[in-house]
Amino acid sequence: MKADEDRTKANGLIEKFTEEDLVELNKILEIKMPTFLIMELEALISMLRDKVEANHVDVKFYLEDFEKFKFKMEYIDATTLNIDNVKAQRETMKRHRDDMRKEEESAKFDYIVEWGLQFAKHAIGVLEVSDQQKKIAALELKIKNAYIKSRKLETVVDFYTDKNIVDFHTGIRDFRISEKTIEV
C-alpha cells in the first residue's frame, strides 16, 4: 500500500532528529525567530494536534520535550486525524517551504518539514481509504435494507395472492386446503 511506504519514508526522515537538533532549533526560534520556519512548525504542530491552526505557544510546548515530540511523530495514528486539517496543513507547509529554505538558520531543519509532508501524504491516503470504506459500508447497509424491504413486500404479495387465502377471504371454501376436514 502506497500510504505505508509514505509512512516508512517519513519515519526514516525523523530518525535523523536528535536532541541536539531540538536544542539548536529552540535557540534559533527564541533568538532569531525565523518567520517561515515558525510558519512551517505551526503547520506541522497543527497537524499533529489535529487542529486548524497552532501558534508559537503550541510550537514551544511541543518542542520542549524531545522524547515526547519524537514519539508523537513516530507513532501518531493517521486514522484519528481530520482529513481537511491534514490537507490544509500540508498546503501551508508546501507554500512556505521554499521561503523557509532561504532562511539561513532554517534550512538545516528542512527534513522536519519533509517529514510533515510525507506524513501528510500518508495520512491523506489512509483517511481517503477509510472514507471509501465507510461509504462502501453505508451502501452495503442500504442494499441490505432495500433487500429486506423488497422481501417483506414479496412475502405480503405472495400471501395475498395465494389461492387458498384469496378463497378464504372471498368466502369460497375449498375443502382440499388440508387433509383435515373443515366444517362450514
Mean pLDDT: 83
> C-alpha Rg, in Å?
32 Å
- What is the SS-derived class? mainly alpha
- As residue ranges, the low-confidence spans are none
Oligomer: single chain
What's the arrangement of secondary structure elements?
Blueprint: H1 2-14, H2 19-31, H3 35-49, H4 56-62, H5 66-75, H6 83-102, H7 110-161, H8 163-170
Helix pairs in contact: 1-7, 3-4, 3-6, 6-7
How would you describe this structure to a colleague?
The chain has one domain (2-135). Helix content is 75%, strand content 0%. It has helices at residues 2-14, 19-31, 35-49, 56-62, 66-75, 83-102, 110-161, 163-170. The termini are far apart. 22% of the residues are buried. The model has no long low-confidence stretch (mean pLDDT 83).
In short:
With 184 residues, the chain is an all-alpha fold.
Task: Give keywords.
8 helices, mainly alpha, 75% helix
